[in-house]
Amino acid sequence: MYSRIAGTGSYLPEKIVTNFDLEKRMDTTDEWIRTRTGIERRHIAAEGQTTVDLAEAAARRAIEAAGVTPAEVDFIVFGTTTPDLVFPNCGTLLQARLGARGCPAFSVETACSGFIYALSIADKFVKSGEAKCALVVGAETLSRITNWKDRNTAVLFGDGAGAVILKPSAEPGLMSTHLHSDGAYKDLLYVDSGVSKGFKVDAATGKVDVGIKMAGSEVFKVAVTKLGSAVDEALAANGLERSAVNWLVPHQANIRIIGAMAKRLELPMERVIVTVQDHGNTSTASVPLALDVGVRDGRVKRGDLLLLEAFGGGFTWGSALVRF
Ligand code: COA
Asked: Which of 6, 120, 164, 234 satisfies CB 3.0 to 4.6 Å to 66 for a cystine?
């Protein structure tokens, strides 16, 4: 028994903030952002619009694409670092919206690699026969933890959601997933506040300061190394050559990291799904968002071999090899 992606969906909030808009708010330029990151615009959730609101829209699209009903969903795993509430978790909040009552629903919090972690967990439940229609979500409202006064990080992030439905299949499907984490890298990318540690209040504005702290060039170097190993690992585990991959569906953080992965796989950029220009780094949402774009515009076809990878704060990282 294997699991197979039966449908994909995604959602981006309506409000678009371009690099030119940011030029007016901070000491940056469109040229700097585009050449260093590939990002041209990002979507920002409206006031009051939450992570679960974005997730619900993406989930309903994935459910529709899979040809199932919300009530058929019997397992929900939700990757996010920007939950609506301390509890219930976002998976359970989404479950109530969908009316899929009684099934297991929970969140995983591994920053930008959250979707790969969630996919790997759901895969095991489907393979074991415990789940027949698993909903896997990655959704974020990163704008809520963005320090808009810090040009080093504010230009990078955006809000969005992506989702897939996994169903049992006699043929793969998900061929393998590979998860890694190394907390020794914490200081390179983190948010230095939380419910238990406490929140700092900005003396000038009186607002809670939950800004992202990042050593950009160090993160860049480790990301390229670890992601390189993760894609090699996925191919080796399945005895496949790089040339077997039809599409690389990478975490959309930076076009230069994406380019480095394509080079490692000896794939031309035409075989890479790139959406970073349209929404920046949406953390856990980025891989399912890119996958949904590739599926809906007809590039990704049934039977194609996809290599998914993501890297995030922790550090956490992982890959998945998928026969679509
Ligand atoms: N606009 C203009 N200048 C900026 C800027 C901005 N938004 N942000 C930083 N700079 C400046 C820096 O202050 C620095 O100036 P200095 O040389 O006078 O000190 C200069 O640009 C170069 O900074 P540097 O860090 O060398 O740039 P870089 O080429 O490493 O690019 C990142 C910076 C953040 C784009 C890049 O390191 C990166 O993408 N890292 C990975 C981040 C990531 O993906 N994080 C999420 C992982 S899930």
From this structure: 6
Q: What is the per-residue pLDDT across 251-290, written as a single tens digit (0 to 9) for each?
A: 999 999 999 999 999 999 999 999 999 999 999 999 999 9
The 10s digit of each residue's pLDDT in 129-166 is 999 999 999 999 999 999 888 999 999 999 999 999 99
- Residues annotated as catalytic are 112, 251, 281
Token reading at 207: 């607002």
Q: How far does the centroid of ligand 1 lie from the alpha carbon of residue 156, in Å?
A: 10
**Average pLDDT of the chain, as a whole number:** 96
- Write out residues with Cβ below 6 Å of ligand 1: 28, 32-33, 36-37, 112, 151-152, 155, 214, 216-217, 219-220, 223, 253-254, 281, 311-312
Segment (H or E) for 26: none
Q: What is the pLDDT of residues 52-69, one digit of tens each?
A: 999 999 999 999 999 999
Using the mean position of ligand 1's atoms as its centre, give its distance from the Cα of residue 219 in Å: 10
Tokens of 199: 């929140």
E-strand spans in 95-253? 105-108, 134-141, 159-169, 174-181, 189-191, 200-201, 208-209, 212-214, 247-250
Phi, psi of 103, deg, nearest 5: -80, 160
